[in-house]
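Chain A, query sequence.
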Amino acid sequence: MSLQADYNTKRVKMVLPEYGRSIHKMVDHMRAIEDRDERNHAAGTIITIMGNMNPHLRDIPDFKHKLWDHIFIMSDFDLDIDSPYPIPVRETFQEKPRKLPYPAQQIKFMHYGKTLEDMVKKAIEFEEGPEKEHLIEILANHMKKSYLTWNRDSVSDETIFKNLKVLSGGKLVPREDLKLVETKDVLGPKIKKKKAPKNHKSDYRSRS
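Chain A, predicted structure.
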């Protein structure tokens, strides 16, 4: 007499594999119980077992609610019991997630980003003086670093100042003697590739 192997691939697919096949079998057995009170008692016992499988989640709000939802899901929403929570319906869990609205705001320079534009707006509100000049210097240096990180190429300070003028509507003007961070300090020294050593063949002379 040959025994046929019981492979997982031949078994019924589990709806919620994280609970294991034993819990799914318990739910199937509970569905078959005819007495409603006994069926309700069995459901409570299964919920307790499911909760014990994840004790670290017990303090999370709505944890018990999720367990009851899961027991209905495992029963394929064909379960007549008294749930302490609203009984879920299949359509709720098959609903496609809503698309998140994409920000409609236009960014003038993608390589600087929206945060930099917000910082420029705040800087405009500062009163004229040393503090504002220092803030302009910080913003300009940040812009140069962002530009070089995005483009990986050299950029003149004049270009950065012109971009800052566009972003601020001409309200942020760097001082004339301002020098920004050097390109090499942002990108680092270029690593020269080592040339492969030439393969010199030894000249052997035959001795007579």
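The helical segments are 20-31, 36-52, 63-74, 90-94, 113-124, 130-151, 157-168, 183-187. Residues 130-151 form the longest helix (22 residues).
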